[in-house]
Design a protein that fits this description.
The complex is a heterodimer of chains A (about 230) and B (about 100). Chain A has about 230 residues and is α+β, with helices and mostly antiparallel strands. In chain A, about 45% of the residues lie in helices and about 20% in strands. In chain A, strands 1, 2, 3, 4, 5, 6 and 7 form a seven-stranded mixed beta sheet that branches. Chain A has a two-stranded antiparallel sheet with strand order 8-9. Chain A is globular, with a radius of gyration of 18 Å. The termini of chain A are far apart. Chain B is elongated. Classes of the chains: A alpha+beta (about 230), B alpha+beta (about 100). The interface between A and B is medium-sized, with 18 and 23 residues.
Chain lengths: ~230, ~100
């Protein structure tokens, strides 16, 4: 991992922690992969490729007493606010990292960004993100704690998302990341956790995961997940 | 190989958007630098800026500490953004060079 990039990531996490935001968000996306190294200590685990996108998912409702201007918080690090797409999704860009905030999509969903006025940003609402919040782990970094989706949820979520991708390269990247984490979980002896995560989601989502695994001929994983589904 | 190429393409698109972003930030910063001059024991300030290739000096007189600080911050941000813009341009050159192969981006 490039040192400057990792140090910048830590500095962002530190500032979010100091402003009382870090305990309301979880780190999602490809930046979870290097942090999973701590979870998979002692296991052969090589984090898959990651991009500059540092994505945070709000898991708790924001109370009025939390007021932190996130763009101002990161301005002196050189982050600039960029409005993405015609809807104006806010991303904070820096040559080493691109910070984006997300929320769980509710109801029928919306294409519009969700305003977070107390924080000076807006967030993108996406489907299936609730799966990442169902089971989380905590990782100690420097003097603070970062919450991540449990690797089992992360991997199964990636399999769902991969199938919704139009871009074949992104699809392959998601699939690689998912299989990398699933294999590490199996090596760690966490087949049961994987099965529990699979069983915690609606049947329709389960079917999507099985379909995705079938396309990739991951029959052993399908068998592992199905075995447990039968014994539920 | 497809995954790496996909990531590089995505990073190139991000860097191109970032280049525009930093150029806009730089263009939006108030122009000029505040310069102090001492005359007969008093401090007076001038705003120095370049116009049509020539350095122009605008008399500002005595300015508040707040304004001095404002221009100091602007100077810092201008230097920071220029440095980051240069980094982004290097990234773009690198990514274009790496992707320049059988297929055009």
């Amino acid at each position: 991992m490039e040192k400057n990039q990792y140090d910048l990531c830590l500095e962002i996490l530190k500032r979010l922690d100091q402003s009382g935001i870090l305990n309301k968000i979880i780190l999602i996306g490809s930046w979870c992969l290097p942090f999973y190294e701590q979870y998979f200590r002692g296991i052969k685990y090589q984090p898959a490729i990651k991009t500059r996108d540092l994505d945070f998912l709000f898991t708790k409702p924001l109370t009025n007493n939390i007021k932190a201007d996130i763009p101002a918080l990161l301005k002196d690090l050189g982050f600039i606010v960029v409005f993405k797409g015609s809807k104006g999704y806010i991303v904070l860009q820096h040559p080493d990292l691109i910070v984006e905030f997300l929320v769980v999509e509710k109801g029928k969903g919306t294409d519009n960004p969700i305003p977070l006025p107390g924080l000076g940003i807006n967030a993108t609402a996406l489907r299936y993100l609730s799966f990442l919040t169902m089971n989380t782990i905590k990782v100690e970094v420097d003097n603070f704690t970062v919450t991540l989706p449990h690797p089992a949820n992360f991997a199964l979520h990636k399999i769902i998302v991969a199938q919704r991708r139009r871009n074949s390269e992104k699809k392959e990247k998601d699939r690689d990341a998912a299989m990398n984490v699933i294999n590490a979980l199996i090596a760690k002896g966490e087949k049961a956790t994987l099965q529990r995560s699979f069983n915690s989601i609606p049947d329709k989502w389960q079917a999507t995961i099985l379909k995705g695994l079938k396309t990739e001929n991951e029959n052993d994983i399908i068998e592992l997940l199905r075995q447990n589904a039968k014994t539920r | 190989m497809g995954v790496i190429k996909g990531v590089l393409k995505e990073e190139l698109a991000n860097s191109l958007s970032m280049k525009k972003g930093y150029e806009k930030e730089l263009a939006d910063l108030p122009r000029g630098s505040l310069v102090k001059k001492k005359r007969k024991g008093h401090d007076y300030y001038y705003l120095l800026l370049r116009e049509k290739g020539k350095v122009k000096s605008i008399y500002k007189g005595k300015v508040s500490a707040e304004e001095i600080n404002k221009y100091k911050k602007i100077k810092e941000y201008r230097a920071k953004y220029r440095k980051l813009l240069s980094k982004v341009k290097k990234q773009i050159r690198f990514l274009r060079g790496t992707l320049r192969g059988k297929e055009s981006v």
